Amino acid sequence: MWIFFQKQFLLYTGKFNYADLGFFLLVGVVGGIIGIMFNTINMRILRWRKAHVTDKWRKIAEAMAISLITSILILGIPLFFSCQSGSVIENTCSDYNSEDSRCRSLVTFGRFTCPEGHYNPAESIISGLFHRNSEHWFPLGEVFLFLIVYYAMVLLACGIAVPAGLFIPLILIGAALGHGMGQAYNKVFGLSLDIGVYALLGSAGVLGGVTRMTMSVCLSPIVHLCVCVRTSHIHVTRQYMFPTSLTAILLEITNDIYYLMPIMIVVMVSKWIGDRFNSALYDSHVALKNMPYLEAKLPSWVPTYIAAHDIMNPSVISLPAICSLRVLLQVINDRSHQHSAFAVLEGPAVQPKELMKMNNKYTQRSGTFAGMVLRWHILILLYNKHYGTPEKLLKFTRKNILTQAQMTDRTWKQKMHVTLEELSVKEYELDMMYIDLSPYIYLSPITVSPHTPINIVYNIFRGLAMRHLVCLDENEKIAGVITCHELIESNLEEVVKRIHQLFDLSGDSNEMFEQRLRFLKNYDTFLLSSGNKWLNDVDHSFDNRIRHLSQDQNPPAEKVKTIKNDEYTLLPDAEEFD
């Protein structure tokens, strides 16, 4: 993109005043509306594509068809517009093919089928949208036609089976929008603000409306960045740190710090308008593909009384430390799940004869939690034939353990299943062969109690980029496992709805209140025993809990008094220690 701006934007010192700020707001509003329409239509196209374009040949055919249509439009549209003389460009040119500096502006434009000394506006519009003082270079009709056609092309192409991005296309759509609005604005009000500025602001508006790349404002106690925007009429100084994303990108591309504040205004307005109607494009794509993406913070609507045991999956597939080959193959080849790791349980030491008698019951909950083993590590052990009879396992030494290079072989990471033919093992040998998983267990996974509050679980899981979070009870046995799927908003909504229905259907209000208080007491007693430092005054905390949980119920006063006199302190709301 630097090629668009390196000659025109360096050290440019234009002028704008308070009257122009109204137009900047209008550009942001229109950019937000364009973004809303783009996201809505594109999501409908993607839903149709997901339902109908499923085979590989259909994806290839779709990409070829869209490429053909795009090529026809790019080559055909300039034929419908007349040529423009080079005299409308500031630097006149007597020889179209000359490389003289006086002709530099014209030779960069496409002549297409035009005679020498002329250029085709529709063919040259991409290379000229961001030029300064380019109001007369491109007629208003060509600009809006380019906007409509290119907008439709990007809508169709977004999501096809081609590795492509949206950033540059959205910049061009916004530039055409701003360029056209600038021309109309200058003609209606008789102004002469540079059209190149409008193109820049239009790009910011469309990018903000589609991607919703926000410009957040964070007050830092250590670092303060003083951003000064100075114009002939405006002086703004804010002692804030601006971690900019979209604004910073556009400023780095254009090197036009003078228009920092207008870009900020346009980006914020377009994002605010867009967020009122739908989600950002990339967020919508993530939701459509059912990707378990977690936001930076737990949604504020999730009640603070939700704990790990409310969301965990109690159906845990666990393996014994010494596992029979049949059990291991059953777990690996089970098509009902796609787990990438399995819990390993410790068990009592056994003799070879007893080891032969092990059955699937051992794989449930008969041992304490030892650690986790990855699926692809199990596959590596199988393909390296790291199994044998009980007598052979007893003779294993450190020399028989696979090396780190063998265990990090990523050839098997994408593989999910294994067959008997690949292992060269016969059916009757499955109950005679065993694998010792002990040397390959991850012994220090992060675990939580089933009573851990949801906000702590969420922060641990997302902050440490975890894939599995094991919940252990007081006996060091597995109570359940939490994955990313349990923490996504749709699943949390179901959990909250289920708990509310449980309370509402419990019958007598006193009984329901007793259930809630019993839950709170167990929950907060656990936190107190773990040395939690966020414990607060009992009356304040209790009132907060009653406000959240009792809803419209009126608990008996003696029950409240009894709870307040207990020798434990309730935890304050999550917002007090987030």
TrEMBL record:
Q: Name one GO molecular function term.
A: chloride channel activity
Answer yes or no on keyword DNA damage. Answer: no
**Claim: Cell inner membrane is one of the keywords in the record:** no
Q: Report the SUPFAM superfamilies cross-referenced here.
A: CBS-domain pair, Clc chloride channel
Q: Which PROSITE patterns match?
A: CBS (PS51371)
Q: Where in the cell is it found?
A: Membrane
Q: Would you say which domain of life the source belongs to?
A: Eukaryota
Q: Which GO terms describe its cellular component?
A: membrane
Q: Where is the CBS domain?
A: 437-498
The residue ranges crossing the membrane are 21-39, 60-81, 143-176, 188-207
The family database entries (InterPro entries) matched by this protein are listed as: CBS_dom, CBS_dom_sf, Cl-channel/antiporter, Cl-channel_core, ClC
Q: Which family does it belong to?
A: Belongs to the chloride channel (TC 2.A.49) family.
Q: What is this protein called?
A: Chloride channel protein
Q: Which organism is it from?
A: Reticulomyxa filosa
